Amino acid sequence: MSQAKERPILFNGPMVRALLDGRKTVTRRPIKPSMRGFDVSFELHQQDDGSWRPMHTFDESCMDDQGTEHPIICPYGQIGDRLWVRETWHCDHFEVQRGPYLKPADLDIAEAREDGTLVYAADGLTPYEAEQPVWKPSIHMPRWASRILLEITNVRVERLQDISKQQALAEGVRLYTDHAECGDWYHVEGIETYSSDPRKSFELLWESTGGDWAGNPWVWVVEFKRIEP
Q1: In terms of pTM, does the model score above 0.85?
Q2: For residue range 166-190, what is the model confidence (pLDDT) as tens digits?
Q3: Which of 2, 112, 211, 222 could form an SS bridge with 206, CB 3.0 to 4.6 Å?
Q4: CA atoms of 161 and 28, how far apart (whole Å)
Q5: End-to-end CA distance of the chain
């Protein structure tokens, strides 16, 4: 059995809150064109080693010059691997401020989170902070600052629009069901945000991050459970 690996994964503020609340136990990520050539008509079948082999209908874009077809490895890992979450953050320690974000020898992580030295944008500001800190992008979060660790429980491939209501809820979507007189939609300044239907709420969430719902792309479906860091 291969040894479990750790990889970083980015989540925005609402999804971090969903993780902390226990509402989010799965994430969908598009299969990038570089992973599948330019062919959009293929299916992936999982092999015994956990990799996925493309089965083409008319294209050989995932084959090498000798006609050998190569498996596609899920970039987020396999069952048993771990994902440490990167989120928007700030650490008010002079050594961290200078970069390159190495953990200072005198920084106690638990104490830093308690006293507000290490804060996360998804939580909002602590009451005693007069000004908002200069947030550091999630892509720059080092491993030591991460507070959420996930263990992969399942990996599969499917079309985006095949998501079920149960899976949409497991994605951590929020629903709008409080005011029936407003219909299925809740509008903020004319922008559709949440729906009373979980699948529609997920569609809106996907599109809000620049995703292409109408194109119905192939996606990695990565299920996980939260564990102690």
Answers
A1: no
A2: 999 999 988 876 444 444 444 444 4
A3: 211
A4: 11
A5: 23
